[in-house]
Amino acid sequence: MRYELRKLVNGWAVWDIERDAPALVQGCSQEAMLMSEADDVTDLLNRLNRPPKHGAKEPDPKGRNS
User: Fold this and answer.
1) Is residue 17 within 8 Å of 6, Cβ to Cβ?
2) Segments making up each domain of the chain, as ranges
């Protein structure tokens, strides 16, 4: 996984392992957070960063089955 939870002097951070620095979300450094917030963001970024499963379809945004 690309992101991990890390304790810093100023609180908790979402750490980008590839950059060896706090993760950036829309240019904002993800640090100085409560542990629960950083943990949630870490999980979300790792889910979004996963490659799609082979043969998996994207869900229909309107909830229709194809």
Assistant:
1) no
2) 3-49
pLDDT of residue 29: 98
Contacts (Cβ under 8 Å, ≥6 apart) of 45 = 2, 3, 14, 23, 25
With cut-offs at 50, 70 and 90, classify the pLDDT of residue 66: low
Query: 26 — alpha (psi -120 to 50), left (phi > 0) or beta?
Result: left
Please, where are the H alpha helices in 1-66? 35-49
Average pLDDT over residues 8-14: 98
Q: CB–CB of 2/49 below 8 Å?
A: yes
